[in-house]
Structure formats: structure tokens, C-alpha cells
Amino acid sequence: MRCCALLLLLCTWACPILIQARQFLFLAAPNVLQMDTEETIVIQAHEFQKEVDLNITVRDFPNKKKVLFSGVTKLTGPNYLNMFTIKIPSADIKSEFEGEKQYVVVTAESKTAQSLSIEKAIMVSRSRGYIYIQTDKSIYTPAQTVLYRLFTTDENMDPHSKPVLVELQNPSGVTVIQNLWQVEDGLIAKSIDIPELASFGEWKIVASYQNDPDNKFVSEFEVKEYVLPSFEVKLTSEKSYFYVGDREFTVDITARYVHNEEVQGYAFVTFSIRRQSEKYNLQNSLQRVEIDDGKGSATLTMEQVIDLFESNTNLVGASISVNANVFSSGGDMVQAERSGIQIVESPYRIQITQTPHYFKPGMPFDFSVRYILI
């Protein structure tokens, strides 16, 4: 009897025990899924010996009734692993409360074995991106036009094209004007007219993406009553032209109060060039000028011009403009501008338009030459 028991025990040790391993799916995804953005998830099947067809669905949370995205993928050996791209439209997800966290349920389910599936609740966030607003000035008066530009970028600071809602709000926060613009390649330039009967104070340009109206970007400017300046600014120059052979062009600034007293302060001066219908701001020409006893001077060098245009010969026929914002020691500011300073190859112009076009033999030939200094 003991021999039979010992023999049975030895047979049990010698024969391998066959155990069927449990098949299961593994799902990896970002902690937060951005709406309206392609996101990648990873799915892997474990303990499989043949390819697996999976249905991928994204549903609302917690009801799981609304399908936000669906697709199909196939897992094949040897790793039975695949990456899959999903995209959740923000228009299909509504938030009842501002700032409320929102989730979706991502499910991977075998098409053949209904019991083989995996699901995961993941937080979602709207693909916000950024909007940068730039206005041409910081202070306006009623009935003036505000020139502004919008720069739109995604989370990676790359330009992108999306509809943008732009609002003009008065100091009370009331929207006066509202426009919807389609931004192309991350940049758009527009204008807004301030009402003639506008309240004074801090106004705002408020921009938001059409699909994300709760995420707002703001640029502020001031609307003030027009007041006659307390002092006058004049911009003059020794020459009325800029010769391409000259190294620099100097503009003299004179600032006097209405009672003829000289202004003490400083000025910020910039130059620009207009060629044909295009205007080019010379950013490297920005300079601070001290105003002492009502006088100061700003200089534009040919090197600064060539930095932008590479050659001075391309500038013949163009004109220079100079803009000066003069600040007095008392805090007042007056803006002055001078334009139409021609860039020339020669400061002189010769005309013979009054000369006859034909010579008559035997007759005196009178001609006249006009010598004009530009």
C-alpha cells in the first residue's frame, strides 16, 4: 500500500500542471486629454497568441450614453501593442458650472470576446491655446479708431487658425461691439471704432476662441477727453531730403509751452520708411532724447536703414517719417510727426520742359533750364 502511494506522488511531481493564463488588456493614456487635439493612447493585449480586433470608444462621464469618438484597431504579434489616436470635439461636451472638472470614459473592447474589455475615466481639458492682443496706442479719445492685431498660438506656441470672438467693452464691462473673425496662420489685423459718446476710463478688447468662450484674453486702453496740449512740439531738419551718400540724417526737436517757456523733459523718437504703399518701422531707430531748454535732436543712420533693406539703392524714391513722443517734467505728453522726407540720389532736379521740341533752321533756338533744389 505504501508503494502505491509513493508511486502516485512521484508521478505527480514528474507530470507538468497545465494552467491557462488569464488574458487581459492594458490601456495607457495621458492624465489629461485636450479637446479638439489629437491625443495618442497605447493599448496592449497580454497572453494572446493571435491577432485581436478592438473597438475603441470615448463616451461621456458618468452616464456613458453619448459617444464622443469611436474607432477600430488591430493588435498583432509579437508584442500585441498598438498606438491609437483619438480626438474629442469640445462642442459635444458641455459644462454646467464654470471651472468644473470634466471627464470622459475611454473603452477598448474585443470584437470577438465581449467579456474582454478595459475602460478608464480620464480628465479632459479644452484646447485653450493663447491669444495676444496688440493695439496701436494706449490712449484714445472718443470717435477715434483703435487698430489692433491678434496673435493666436496653440499650447506649443505654434501659430494656428481658429475662429476668434472679439469684444469691445466699456469701463462698466458692457460689450459695445462684438465681432467673430477667422484667424489664418496665427495673425489677423483689424480695427474698432470707439463710439462718439463714449464714457471715459479703462476700455477693454476681450478675445476668446469660439469653442472656448470662458477662456478670455484682455488688452486694456484708456479713453480720455481731448485736451489741447499744454506745449507745442516742432520737428525740423537742416535738409529736406536724405541723400543716399550721407551717413546720417538729423532731426531737431523744439518744445515750448504756449506762454513761450522752454520744456524740460525727454522724448522717444522712432523713424519709419514708406516705399510705394508699404510702411516699414525701423525698430532699431528707437531712441530716448533728452529735451534740455526746449531742444533736442535725434539721428537716423544709413546703417540702421541698410539693416532692414540691405542696400540703399533700393530706397531711392522712398520717404522717411519721424515720430516723437515728448514728455515734460510735469508729466504732460505731446506727440509730433513729420513725414515726406525724400530719399534721393541727387539733391537737385533739372527740368527742360519749357524747351521747344523742334529746331527750325535759320531761326534762333531758345531753351530754358530749371534748376530745382529738393
UniProtKB/TrEMBL annotation:
Name of the featured protein: Uncharacterized protein
InterPro entries: A2M/Complement_sys, C3/4/5_MG1, Ig-like_fold, MG2, MG3
MF GO annotations: serine-type endopeptidase inhibitor activity
Entry keywords, A to Z: Disulfide bond, Glycoprotein, Protease inhibitor, Secreted, Serine protease inhibitor, Signal
Organism per entry: Pleurodeles waltl
Ranges where the Macroglobulin domain occurs: 131-223, 225-304
Lineage of the organism: Eukaryota, Metazoa, Chordata, Craniata, Vertebrata
Signal recorded as keyword: yes
Pfam families: MG1, MG2, MG3
Gene Ontology cellular component terms for the protein in this record: extracellular region
Subcellular location as annotated: Secreted
